[in-house]
Structure formats: structure tokens, C-alpha cells
Specification:
- The protein has 653 residues and is an alpha/beta fold.
- 30% of the residues lie in helices and 22% in strands.
- Helix 1 crosses helix 8 and helix 15 runs antiparallel to helix 17.
- The model has no long low-confidence stretch (mean pLDDT 90).
- The protein binds a DNA duplex (12 and 12 nucleotides) through strand 1, strand 2 and strand 3.
Length: 653
DNA sequence: TAAAATGCATGT
DNA sequence: CATGCATTTTAC
């Protein structure tokens, strides 16, 4: 008798295992490993995937028959199934949670198309693009020969990274292997797609983006599953794409928090990618302009080699970076930043504009005055009704009025009474891009001012020519011919954060902006509004992201934070947490930290708190298993209140 | 949402 | 303490 091992699509943790079903003779021709089926499960008809076919079962009782083969298309490949299982285990989630991210919803119409012919592999790429990196040509050769080379690539400032990543894919493809590249957002994906169109044969690659129409999304997924397209370019969910004969996985800007999956089991694209390279025995490239502590650990542990520019190439490519003194007015008072732009920043901007070049101005937040605080005691101003933060939006209200309002519940705050000191006046604690643009317009009359940010719309690029381009981090447009200068005005907001990653994240944002500036030899200058003695500022001035990443890693080791340790965050109501912890069998050397009250999220009710569980890195698997076990017991008992479990969450205070 | 297991009142 | 019926639990 033919038996199908089926993974059913139910979110219950205690049912996270395959179930055997008998294949009725009339379905035997259609059923295939990896295909979608419907089965009767606890009375209900549920969706599932066939993991494998066999002729034996461990199950004692009578096997139920498969109800239906939804489609014969093998969408769950053995390699992806193994990856999904590993990810679920590593992050304490369930297999079906991961599959929901990995396999897009089916669209029957897309399956009707006959599979296209796979294009011929291209020739190996010209290594000239990597000539400035001593280890570059060897990496290309390794990829073309199908060897599992692993690198942390730190791109030189001004690098045409989409072209380089396309060349890495071309190398893998020339050796007959597939490749997978993950980037943070749609704008980066557009650039990568354009570069791939130049370097790779037509039809050999597909672009997977989460915001694509369901039909197009499934069609492209099928191109990959059927093996017609062997290179996948995409955003974070693409780490699970079923690329045939995977030879290379790569990620761009792994420090960008868009790579952190906000849906369970909350796995980070870089970490999934590293797991995948391990399972598939393929090459891996963790690439960025800056460097994360996680990437530093990959180097330190010997898992990856460093791919960095040589000294002279770095000198030739870097802009000149100026920092301000510690006592500068600008460094201390955000409100003084633009209204009284320090003479240095003013001069640098004026010079660039006079030379006919655009100037990039990086500000921390979009909007007009997104953050407000009490004028007297400087405590952050909160909504009297829901305790959400007050702000002034970028778009003026009726009659051009700018009234403070709650950023969660949108209630206008006509009056303000500070709960700490009973002050009644508000001041801007954070200035937004719109406000900065307004003030710069006054400081440089005659210069065109353009804004790129979430609220006002993100620009992909700006033309050469004098203009002030105000952008929030991550929304900096690429300038044709490079920017003449960049002013980094968001220093205090970034460095002042209590966040564990504040230093690393600040350098990442600064470098991503500064990398768009022309080299110093072409007049490119960067002014950073922060104390020159600060290590993050030093790393920028010397353009040494590796040094800062090593320091960050050492700090985390000292403080006992990831990636040096493994930390699980447990959040929920106090009662649910108490219940959860009572059932949790902590690994022997685990610490339990907390509880700390959690900021209520918009639309969330009741008191929530959070515990952290810390274990040594080597105990991570034990911890994840123990957490999954408790989730299983709770789901079997049908405990109504959910406890959110996140392993190595990005935000750790 | 189907079968099996369990709970519970009822009648001898 | 068997029987019938309702409710809860299981999960192939």
C-alpha cells in the first residue's frame, strides 16, 4: 500500500510532526513528494504537503485516506523541507509556520503554463569588478568551480554592489549551479534586478518580492520550483526559495532590520541563509558597506573569510569625513541643528552646491516633528488617552495648522499637562525630514530641496546638479555621479538610543549614506554631527567597519548578549508568563531575567511583560527545544493566552 | 467537523 | 451498575 507522509497546515505546536495517510489507488498517479494535498484531520479537511511517499507506517491504528491531491506540482523540495525543519527547531517555532513564509499561496492558473526551457549557462564573469578586493578573483573562481567558499564582503564606498552581486550569481551560474540573493527592500531589489538583467541570460533569474500580485508571485515561484530559473533575487522570504542545485547564497546589508522576519518564528534572513549554506554545502556571501557583530563572529569563528578592499583602493574610494567637537552646539541640541547649521556643515554644503553637485542631508525621522517632549522636564510627551507618543505630522491639518496628535490613536492633543512636572508646553525632541527641508530651504535660498522618506515618498535616484536632498536612513536616493557632500544630522538620535545595537546601527546608516558620496579626490566630503572622540565616529572617519564590529562583538560577549550568547524573549500577560515559566525546563546554565513591563503596542490590551532567558551559545538548541516543548504542552491543553517566544530578537535593550 | 472517549443522569 | 444521551477530546 502506498503511504504519504503529510505535514498538515495547523498552527498547533503539539501537532508539529508528519502524519501518515493511505493513498487511494485513484490518487496514486497524481500524488508526488512535495505536492499539495487535502486530508481529513480530526474531522476537518485541512491543507497539507506530502513530505515523502513510502510503503510502511509507524502508526498503529487505521490510516485515513488522502482526501484530495490539490496539485501534483512539487512545491516543497526536500532541501527546503530540511531547511524549514532546521529553522523551526532553531527558533522554537513550527514547521508549518515556516512553510507559510516559504511557499506562496497557490494560484491554479499559474500552473497551467507549460514549463519554459532553461536558458544556457553564461560564461564566467570578468573578474575586473572585484579587482580592488585581493580575495575577489579567487572567490569568483571558487563559485564557478562550485566550491563552497564563504565570505564576509565589506563593499568599498561608492561600490556598484548590485553589479558585483550579479557577477557572483553569474559565476555560480557559469559553473552550472543556482544562486540566491536577498536584499532588504524593493528599491534595492530594483537595482539588483537591473544589474542582473545586464549580467545574466534572459530567463535565468527571477525576482521574488512580497508585494507582488499573488498570481505573479506564484508564477515566479513556480519558475524556480520547476528549475527553469536558477537564480533568485528577492526580499527576506526569498531565503526559502526552492533554487535547484544551490551553489551560492548571498545577503546584502545584513544589519538592516528589514531582514528580521516579523512573523513567527521570527528568524533573521542572514541566519537562515547561513543555516541554508550549511545544509546545502554551498557558498555564502554576507555583504554590506558596514559590518554587523554577527558577521564579525562568522569571521572570528573561521566560518567565513574576509573580502575587503585593499588599502589603496579604500583610500581612493572614500570621501573625506569631518566630525564635530564634543562641545559643539550641534552635537548637543537637536533643535539647533538646522536652524543654526554649524559653519563647517554650512561651508561643505555650499562648496558642493557651488561645484554643481547634490548634497545629501540625512535626518533621523520622516514627518515634521515626529517626537515631542515636555518643554520643562524633557520627558517624552504621551497621549492622555492611550499613552501613545505625541507628534506633529508632515501634512498640515485644515487651514495649514500643525496640531500635536497621538501617533497611535490619532487623537489631537489640544492641551498638554505633563504627568511628571505639570508643564503645559511642548518642544520638538525629534525633528523630521519635512521640517529640516523647510529650514534648509531658508538657509540655502535658491537651492532646490527634495525630500525622500516614508511619509513623503522614497526617491530611487536624483539627477546630477545642485540640490539639497533630505532623506531618512534607508531612503537615501542614489545620485547620478555621486553626491558632492553628505551631512549626517541624526547622530544624537541614533547614538543616544539605549538599544544594544545603537552603535553598530548608527555606523551602518552613516556608511550607507556616506558611500553615496564621491571620493575625496573628486571633492566628496561628509560632515557628521557628532563627537569625534566617539568610537562610532572614529570608525566612520577611518572608514573601518571591521574594527567597530569587532568591538561590538567584544562588548556583547562582555555583557552576555547575542551573538555571543543566545537569548529568548518571552512576552505575554503576567499570568500566562507565570504559567509558561512553571512548565519550562530551563537548561542548566540558563539565566532568567525580568520581568520588565512592555510598552503596550497600538491596539493591544491589558498588561504585558517580558522575560529574557539567556544561555551560552552552545545551549541554543536545548533552549529552543525546551521552549517548543512548553508551547506544545500549552497548545495541547488549549491554553487561550499566547506567549510570544522570540529567539535572538533584534531589539534588546 | 468525524469518530472516540468521557461524563452524567436515569432506571433497574 | 448497566444504559442512553450529551459533551469533550482527539488528531494518521
Amino acid at each position: 500500500m502506498l503511504i504519504a507522509r503529510v505535514v498538515v497546515d495547523v498552527p498547533l505546536a503539539h501537532l508539529d510532526r508528519p502524519f501518515d495517510y493511505a493513498v487511494p489507488p485513484e490518487l496514486a498517479d497524481d500524488v508526488r513528494p512535495g505536492c499539495r494535498v487535502r486530508v481529513r484531520f480530526a474531522g476537518q479537511l485541512v491543507d497539507g504537503f506530502v513530505l515523502e511517499l513510502g510503503d510502511t507506517t509507524e502508526h498503529q491504528g487505521r490510516l485515513a485516506p488522502l482526501a484530495k491531491v490539490v496539485s501534483s506540482e512539487p512545491v516543497l523540495t526536500p532541501e527546503v523541507a530540511a531547511l524549514a525543519r532546521a529553522v523551526a527547531d532553531r527558533w522554537g517555532g513550527t514547521f508549518s509556520d515556516v512553510l507559510r513564509l516559504a511557499i506562496p499561496p497557490r494560484r491554479a492558473s499559474a500552473e497551467k503554463r507549460p514549463p519554459a526551457e532553461a536558458p544556457e549557462p553564461p560564461p564566467a564573469p570578468d573578474p575586473a569588478g572585484f579587482a580592488r578586493y585581493p580575495a575577489g578573483p579567487a572567490l569568483l573562481t571558487a563559485l564557478a568551480e562550485g566550491r563552497p567558499a564563504r565570505a564576509v564582503w565589506t563593499a568599498l564606498p561608492g561600490e556598484d554592489w548590485p553589479a558585483r552581486l550579479a557577477e557572483l550569481c553569474q559565476a555560480a551560474l557559469s559553473g552550472g549551479r543556482g544562486a540566491l540573493v536577498v536584499v532588504p527592500d524593493g528599491r534595492d531589489l530594483d537595482r539588483l534586478e537591473a544589474a542582473a538583467a545586464r549580467a545574466l541570460p534572459k530567463g535565468s533569474f527571477v525576482v521574488l518580492r512580497a508585494d507582488a500580485a499573488p498570481d505573479a508571485r506564484y508564477r515566479r515561484f513556480l519558475d524556480v520550483a520547476r528549475g527553469t530559473a536558477t537564480v533568485v533575487l528577492g526580499t527576506r522570504a526569498a531565503v526559502y526559495a526552492p533554487v535547484a542545485d544551490l551553489g551560492l547564497v548571498a545577503i546584502w546589508d545584513d544589519g538592516d532590520d528589514l531582514h528580521a522576519e516579523p512573523r513567527g518564528p521570527y528568524a533573521h534572513a542572514r541566519d537562515v541563509l547561513v543555516h541554508r549554506a550549511h545544509l546545502a554545502g554551498c557558498a555564502a556571501v554576507v555583504a554590506a558597506t558596514a559590518r554587523t557583530a554577527e558577521a564579525a563572529l562568522l569571521l572570528e569563528s573561521g566560518w567565513a573569510h574576509e573580502l575587503v578592499g585593499n588599502r589603496s583602493a579604500l583610500r581612493a574610494a572614500s570621501p573625506r569625513v569631518h566630525a564635530l567637537g564634543a562641545d559643539s552646539e550641534l552635537a548637543r541640541d537637536p533643535a539647533a541643528r538646522t536652524a543654526r547649521l554649524p559653519s563647517l556643515a554650512h561651508r561643505v554644503a555650499r562648496e558642493a552646491l557651488a561645484a554643481g553637485a547634490p548634497v545629501l542631508v540625512q535626518v533621523p525621522r520622516s514627518g515634521y516633528a515626529p517626537g515631542l517632549s515636555c518643554e520643562r522636564c524633557r520627558a517624552p510627551a504621551r497621549c492622555a488617552v492611550c499613552a501613545g507618543p505625541l507628534g506633529i505630522s508632515a501634512t498640515p491639518g485644515p487651514g495649514g495648522s500643525r496640531v500635536p496628535a497621538c501617533r497611535w490613536c490619532a487623537r489631537p492633543a489640544a492641551t498638554f499637562d505633563c504627568p511628571h512636572c505639570h508643564g503645559t508646553k511642548l518642544r520638538a525632541s525629534v525633528l523630521g525630514a519635512s521640517r529640516t527641508a523647510e529650514e534648509l530651504g531658508r538657509a540655502f535660498p535658491g537651492a532646490a530641496v527634495r525630500v525622500s522618506g516614508r511619509t513623503s515618498g522614497v526617491l530611487a535616484s536624483v539627477p546630477a546638479g545642485p540640490a539639497l536632498v533630505v532623506a531618512t536612513p534607508g531612503a537615501e536616493p542614489v545620485a547620478e555621479g555621486g553626491y558632492g557632500a553628505a551631512l549626517l544630522l541624526d547622530s544624537w538620535a541614533l547614538l543616544g538610543r539605549a538599544d544594544l545595537r545603537a552603535g553598530e546601527e548608527t555606523l551602518r546608516r552613516w556608511m550607507n549614506a556616506a558611500a553615496l558620496v564621491r571620493p575625496a579626490s573628486a571633492g566628496g566630503q561628509v560632515v557628521v554631527a557628532a563627537d569625534a572622540a566617539h568610537p562610532v565616529v572614529q570608525a566612520l572617519v577611518r572608514w573601518d567597519p571591521g574594527w567597530l564590529a569587532e568591538r561590538e562583538l567584544a562588548d556583547r560577549r562582555e555583557l552576555g548578549f547575542p551573538p555571543a550568547t543566545r537569548i529568548a524573549s518571552l512576552s505575554g500577560s503576567p499570568e500566562a508568563l507565570a504559567d509558561f515559566l512553571a512548565a519550562l525546563r530551563l537548561p542548566a546554565d540558563a539565566d532568567l531575567l525580568g520581568p520588565v513591563p512592555e510598552q503596550p503596542r497600538p491596539g493591544q490590551e491589558g498588561v504585558r511583560e517580558r522575560y529574557l532567558v539567556r544561555t551560552p551559545r552552545g545551549e541554543g538548541a536545548t533552549l529552543a527545544h525546551a521552549l517548543a516543548e512548553v508551547q506544545g504542552v500549552r497548545s495541547a491543553k488549549k491554553v487561550p493566552e499566547h506567549v510570544r517566544v522570540q529567539l535572538d530578537p533584534t531589539e534588546l535593550v
